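Revision sheet: structure tokens.
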Amino acid sequence: LCSLNLLCVFIYTRSNVAWGIPDHIFVLSGWAATSMAFMWIIMPGVVLISHLCPEGIEATMYAMLAGSHNLGATISAFGGACLLEALN
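Predicted:
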């Protein structure tokens, strides 16, 4: 996942344009690869939680896990934006 995040270096140095890859294609493919890698990383945790929770509420546990992740991502993005604004 860390190596996928290093793709930003190629955008900053404009290496992707030198290779003949437009910015929007490079960014979208990098975003898709990062999302796919993240799903592979959290899959063992989702399977473990589904085995550990009481039978019949697996979907509820998955929804709670997804909701917690989305809330954390939103708070993280908002906190980063506030920090950037405060440092500007």
